[in-house]
Specification:
The chain is mainly alpha-helical. The chain has helices at residues 19-31, 36-43, 52-64, 70-86, 90-98, and strands at residues 48-50, 87-89.
Length: 99
């Protein structure tokens, strides 16, 4: 599940930043070029960026996941720890840039 988790309507795993997130970040940096050097530093942290909408949908799923099967739940907990350390929303990134 952790490496291949998908549902019919919700993609849970991304190998790289989504196109939507890249476009949002590009648009922000285009209108705020003074943040570009700071963004380059953040980019080295190797996060996977998702649009805020994508991030919020997955975050809601992660926060509300329930399963009584102990094996599936153990797999989910592994995914959850990766999720919070690896993925960032465009809103989080933009707020980090502004701080």
């Amino acid at each position: 599940m952790a490496n291949h988790a998908q549902s019919e309507n919700l993609k849970l795993v991304y190998n790289q930043s989504s196109e939507e997130a890249k476009n949002e970040i590009r648009s922000f940096l285009y209108t705020n070029p003074n943040y570009l050097p700071t963004f380059k530093k953040l980019e080295k942290r190797n996060y996977i960026y998702l649009s805020s909408e994508q991030f919020n949908q997955i975050n809601d799923y992660v926060e509300n996941y329930k399963n009584n099967d102990s094996d599936k739940y153990a797999e989910f907990l592994e995914f959850k720890s990766t999720w919070f350390s690896r993925y960032k929303s465009t809103n989080q990134i933009i707020n980090e840039l502004k701080d």
